[in-house]
Design brief:
mainly alpha, about 150 residues, globular
Length: about 150
């Protein structure tokens, strides 16, 4: 599995790994001996494992990396946040919305992406609150796009 993660592969390759090796992906994502790239791809692959086990792992991973301790933790946190957004996790807003106030604009950007991906109406309030104070242009644009996603008629 680790060798497969080290290769350049698209969404289909990650989805196959999520379907067949979810536990291994979790172990790799948590393994500090694995490279940042391999750990990041393991987290990204978990976006395709749409089940409670993957959601719980990602939630705990995010909580454990907040605030990030170093540059590697920051990258891993960002991958986990987006993966959780793809999951449509019921606790997405509770887990990710606090990251909209992170000092790092890239973390805020990925938090806004994840909240938009989740399309939960409950994401509207924290997105609007952050939009009122956000100074980074890229993050503002993503918040606006995410607001459209969470407020769109279904």
């Amino acid at each position: 599995v680790e060798a497969a993660l080290g290769k350049a592969g698209g969404a289909a390759a990650l989805a196959r790994l999520a379907a067949t090796a979810q536990g291994t992906l979790m172990a790799i994502a948590s393994d500090r001996a694995a490279t940042e790239t391999v750990r990041s791809r393991a987290l990204s692959a978990l976006a395709y494992a749409r089940n409670l086990r993957a959601q719980t792992f990602l939630e705990n991973f995010i909580v454990g990396k907040t605030p990030p301790f170093d540059a590697t933790d920051r990258v891993l946190l960002r991958h986990a946040v987006v993966a959780l957004g793809w999951q449509g996790d019921p606790r997405l807003v509770e887990t990710v919305a606090p990251l909209l106030d992170n000092a790092d604009s890239d973390v805020r950007l990925d938090a806004a992406i994840a909240l938009g991906l989740g399309r939960g109406r409950s994401a509207e309030a924290p997105l609007r609150a952050r939009l009122a104070t956000e100074t980074d242009g890229a993050v503002r644009r993503q918040i606006e796009a995410s607001l459209k996603a969470v407020t769109a008629p279904r």
